[in-house]
């Protein structure tokens, strides 16, 4: 039976709640411009994306009363924060990430509801550009396993996974056929955020060890062959006291080949080159009790930071020197160009 996902269109209301997830938009002076998508419910935000239509897409796990069987969902907002629509999953508890192919089709990484008959698998759901369910593929794992991130490059689907029974990177075509699995870092490492440099053809994957230990960004060719690693602990000076899984949120590559991530240990957006040399950092404000989950850049080059139940403090660190900000801003302004996406209509 063909499934149709639920599409709900409604206007944005100004709800504030101690349990809400939210997107913060910052400029490159570290000043807060606006908040986007405050939900007013116990939503756990997992990722934020700018779609091919330049709107903002966010993915959630939804626990309104602590139930692990509540449905995950996706929200779509305009660049100025107006809520344009939402997709409610039929039977996914966690929606971890999403991406679009060249035809505007949407691919969603999710985790089946815990009340399903085991093995409670992780999977990928495909929807057309109008929000109609197309297919499911890539099922694997048990309750502890999940897909973590997805990047679609030249209509090949690259996914990272995180869990107990597998930590493989996987490549699929858009019809769901598995092309290749690879994981040269070993079974004690997880694969999390993925970024791609269209100029050099290098795939970057955040691959921390489970718990304290090595914190790496692995560099792959599109064929899955390992090209090298960046030692994040060394890059940041070695003074990291948190576990590797909790250190970085999000990964993006600028048009100049530099890489960006958010350091949750210092609340800074960091920029480094392909050799792991730290170039710049920008403080984005302390929160008051939440967690930063992901970030990306919008079409204006501003930073979209996804946090759970976290508001920035009133104080801010000194603004960096103008020369530093200029280099930082120029580098990020080209980030969206490196994604090479075409405008399509969705939802």
Write the layout of secondary structure elements.
Elements: E1 6-8, E2 21-26, E3 32-36, E4 43-50, E5 56-62, E6 73-77, E7 83-88, E8 92-100, E9 106-112, E10 122-127, E11 133-140, E12 146-153, E13 156-162, E14 169-173, E15 178-182, E16 194-197, E17 202-208, E18 215-220, E19 226-231, H1 232-235, E20 248-253, E21 259-263, E22 268-272, E23 278-283, E24 291-297, E25 303-308, H2 322-333
Antiparallel strand pairs: 1-7, 2-3, 2-25, 4-5, 5-6, 6-7, 8-9, 9-10, 10-11, 12-13, 13-14, 14-15, 16-17, 17-18, 18-19, 20-21, 21-22, 22-23, 24-25
Strand content: 35-45%
Sheet with most strands: strand arrangement: 1-7-6-5-4
For the sheet with most strands, the description reads: 5 strands, antiparallel
Q: Helical stretch count?
A: 2
Counting copies of identical and different chains, the oligomeric state is single chain
The run of helices and strands is EEEEEEEEEEEEEEEEEEEHEEEEEEH
Short note summarizing the structure:
Helices cover 5% and strands 44% of the residues.
What does this structure look like?
It is a single chain. The chain has 347 residues and is mainly beta. It has a single domain (6-339), classed as Neuraminidase (6 Propeller), CATH 2.120.10. The chain contains two helices and 25 strands. The protein has helices at 232-235, 322-333; strands at residues 6-8, 21-26, 32-36, 43-50, 56-62, 73-77, 83-88, 92-100, 106-112, 122-127, 133-140, 146-153, 156-162, 169-173, 178-182, 194-197, 202-208, 215-220, 226-231, 248-253, 259-263, 268-272, 278-283, 291-297, 303-308. The strands form six sheets. It has a five-stranded antiparallel β-sheet, with no helix packed on it. Strands 3-2-25-24 form a four-stranded antiparallel β-sheet, with no helix packed on it. The longest helix is centred in the last third of the chain and has 12 residues, at 322-333. It is globular, with a radius of gyration of 19 Å. The model is unreliable at 1-19 and 310-347 (pLDDT under 50).
């Amino acid at each position: 039976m063909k499934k149709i996902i639920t599409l709900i269109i409604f206007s944005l209301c100004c709800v504030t709640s101690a349990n809400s997830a939210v997107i913060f938009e910052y400029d490159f002076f570290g000043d807060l411009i606006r908040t986007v998508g405050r939900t007013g419910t116990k939503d756990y935000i997992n990722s934020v994306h700018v779609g091919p239509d330049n709107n903002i897409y966010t993915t959630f796990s939804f626990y309104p009363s602590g139930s692990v069987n509540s449905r995950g969902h996706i929200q779509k907002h305009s660049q100025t924060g107006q809520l344009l629509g939402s997709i409610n999953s039929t039977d996914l508890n966690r929606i971890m990430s999403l991406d679009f192919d060249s035809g505007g089709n949407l691919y969603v990484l999710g985790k089946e509801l815990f009340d399903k008959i085991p093995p409670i698998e992780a999977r990928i759901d495909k929807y057309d550009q109008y929000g109609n369910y197309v297919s499911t593929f890539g099922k694997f794992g048990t309750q502890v396993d999940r897909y973590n991130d997805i990047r679609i490059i030249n209509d090949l689907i690259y996914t990272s996974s995180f869990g107990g029974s597998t930590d493989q990177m996987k490549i699929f075509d858009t019809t769901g056929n598995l092309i290749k699995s690879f994981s040269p870092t070993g079974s004690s490492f997880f694969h999390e955020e993925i970024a791609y440099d269209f100029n050099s053809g290098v795939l970057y994957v955040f691959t921390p060890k489970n718990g304290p230990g090595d914190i790496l960004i692995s560099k792959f060719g599109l064929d899955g062959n390992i090209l090298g690693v960046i030692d994040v602990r060394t890059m940041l000076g070695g003074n990291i006291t948190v576990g590797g899984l909790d250190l970085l949120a999000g990964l993006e590559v600028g048009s100049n080949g530099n890489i960006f991530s958010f350091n949750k240990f210092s609340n800074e957006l960091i920029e480094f080159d392909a050799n792991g040399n730290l170039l710049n950092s920008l403080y984005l404000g302390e929160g008051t009790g939440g967690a930063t989950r992901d970030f990306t850049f919008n079409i204006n080059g501003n930073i979209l930071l996804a946090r759970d139940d976290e508001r920035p403090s009133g104080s801010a660190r000194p603004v960096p020197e103008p020369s530093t900000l200029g280099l930082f801003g120029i580098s990020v302004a080209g980030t969206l160009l490196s994604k090479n996406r075409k405008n399509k209509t969705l939802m």
